């Protein structure tokens, strides 16, 4: 199979897009393409905004952002739309029962099942911890778009996944290794963070061990590696949009958290970087 990369927009005309990276032309719905492009544009805007304004939740929470809500409900409401939008969009596609789309469906939905239904229950929120509802609306918008794009892509447009020999492709194995490593780093780091507080405690401590030996936010680094791996393994433009949006969201937050740790803890490890070991 010859694989050629053609930038999506270069081949776009009157509602059709040639997905030549799959070696086959497929018509793509105009709405789908518009949402896909919007996510790339939104990523650029979010990156610039978040370099100026720290998203006001968790350790960067502050008053003046309107009504607020319990942190567990906050996470549930933010993440549920991704789980639902992906599931519905995926099931509507003609290849929903094909092996490789199903494989990637399990990876995506497994992540969001955990984030929406399990992660909120494992949190140890601050005593006075409330998170602003306005962030839920923003996250819901992105998560609906992201779930729709990824679910639809896998079961409707990913022609290269509909043949059973995709597992021989080096993009699949390299991407899957990245995905698994990213999940492990993200989950371990979140586990360390959650256990810095005893039950009923509210304060903040310096996290140690694992990825924290190198960076202040290994949970965000893991998330970035995870979704980059997903995009590569599925060879998916929707996955790429997700990975880029994740970077636009989490790199500025990691920089802000790193500054926050340094300002708050005089004994903060000097060699630790924000998100990229040894670099940033
Ligand atoms: N894909 C995306 O675009 C995206 C966007 C955002 C988040 N996420 C993922 O969602 C998960 C949570 O993100 P987050 O931004 O909430 O992470 P976070 O700010 O690191 O907080 C995670 C949890 O640990 C607690 N915590 C953090 N640092 C602490 C410290 N030094 N001492 C004691 N407790 C501490 C927080 O409490 P407080 O809430 O009280 O601070 C919170 O309960 C991560 O896995 C992240 O990768 C993904």
Task: Tell me what the structure shows.
It is a single chain. The chain has 280 residues and is mainly alpha-helical. It has one domain (8-264). 59% of the residues lie in helices and 1% in strands. The protein contains seven helices and two strands; from the N terminus they run H-E-H-H-E-H-H-H-H. It has helices at 30-52, 71-92, 99-122, 133-157, 170-194, 218-234, 237-264; strands at 68-69, 131-132. A two-stranded antiparallel ribbon has the order 1-2. Helix 4 (133-157) runs antiparallel to helix 7 and helix 5 (170-194) runs antiparallel to helix 6. The longest helix has 28 residues, at 237-264. It is globular, with a radius of gyration of 20 Å. The structure holds NADP nicotinamide-adenine-dinucleotide phosphate (NAP). Residues 58-59, 71, 123, 125-126, 129, 186, 190, 193-194, 196-197, 204-205, 207, 219-220, 223, 246, 249-250 line the site of NADP nicotinamide-adenine-dinucleotide phosphate.
Shape: globular
The SS-based structural class is mainly alpha
Percent helix: 55-70%
Tally of structural domains: 1
| Order of strands, widest sheet | 1-2
First-residue to last-residue Cα separation? 39 Å
Q: How many distinct beta strands? A: 2
């Amino acid at each position: 199979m010859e694989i050629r990369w053609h930038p999506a927009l270069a081949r776009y005309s009157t509602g059709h897009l040639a997905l030549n990276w799959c070696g086959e032309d497929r018509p793509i719905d105009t709405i789908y393409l518009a949402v896909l492009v919007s996510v790339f544009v939104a990523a650029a805007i979010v990156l610039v905004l978040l370099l100026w304004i720290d998203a006001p939740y968790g350790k960067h929470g502050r008053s003046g952002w309107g009504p607020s809500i319990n942190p567990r409900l906050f996470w549930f409401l933010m993440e549920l739309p991704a789980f639902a939008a992906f599931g519905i969009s995926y099931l509507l596609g003609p290849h929903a029962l094909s092996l490789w789309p199903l494989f990637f469906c399990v990876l995506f939905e497994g992540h969001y099942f955990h984030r929406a239904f399990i992660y909120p229950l494992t949190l140890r929120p601050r005593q006075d911890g409330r998170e602003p509802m306005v962030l839920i609306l923003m996250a819901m918008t992105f998560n609906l778009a992201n779930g729709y794009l990824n679910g639809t892509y896998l079961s409707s447009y990913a022609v290269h996944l509909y043949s059973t020999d995709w597992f021989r492709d080096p993009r699949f194995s390299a991407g899957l290794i990245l995905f698994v490593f990213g999940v492990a780093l993200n989950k371990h780091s979140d586990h360390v963070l959650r256990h810095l507080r005893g039950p009923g405690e509210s304060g903040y401590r310096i996290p140690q061990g694992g990825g924290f030996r190198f960076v202040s936010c290994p949970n965000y680094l893991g998330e970035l590696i995870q979704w980059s791996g997903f995009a590569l393994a599925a060879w998916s433009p929707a996955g790429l949009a997700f990975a880029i949006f994740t970077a636009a969201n989490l790199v500025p937050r990691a920089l802000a958290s790193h500054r926050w740790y340094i300002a708050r803890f005089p004994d903060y490890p000097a060699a630790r970087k924000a998100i990229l070991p040894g670099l940033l």
